[in-house]
Amino acid sequence: QYLAEASLLKNIEALDKRQIAEYIKNNNLTGGVDTLGYHYKILDKGTGGAVDRTDSVFYTYDFKHASGASFFKNSDYQIPRNFLGYTDRFGFKDIPAVRLTLSKLQKGGTARVILPSSMAFGKNGNKTFGVESNEIIVIDLALLTQKNWVEMDNYLLDKFVAAKGLTPVTHPSRVRYVISAEGTGKDDVLSTSKVKV
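-> structure tokens emitted (197 positions)
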């Protein structure tokens, strides 16, 4: 039984290597291989400061099939924030390659990780995500430059406003608003006015 299991593991390892080599060739990638066995490509090193395990960082992730189709990513307006040392934790699995690759970047940097199936969902795959048995996984990562929630709020508001083609007014509280119709009533609305809305 031990020999059969060892043979199966070698076959899976060979399959992983073949799939990764094919992905790298098809996508004209070069890059490194970590000692843990995953491949990575630094797409943009970034120009912001370097980060340490204890630094709090904003980052994005996009898990993909080798075909390029996304199956798990953060939404455009919900950017995760965590200590760098905890960025490998996802609800379905801990993936150290995410933390280790982000640690190679400076703020503003981007990278791509190629996980062998043995470091992803293995022989069982994942039906929820449509991941097949022994399927390699690609993860696109970005380490954002924002240092705190105020900067991130402003970044997300700018992104939303630009996407919608809006020209809002910014209140001192940082709330942005657009008056779509000022109204024709003659009385000023005061903080003490009774109104129906």
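Helices lie at 2-26, 96-102, 149-164.
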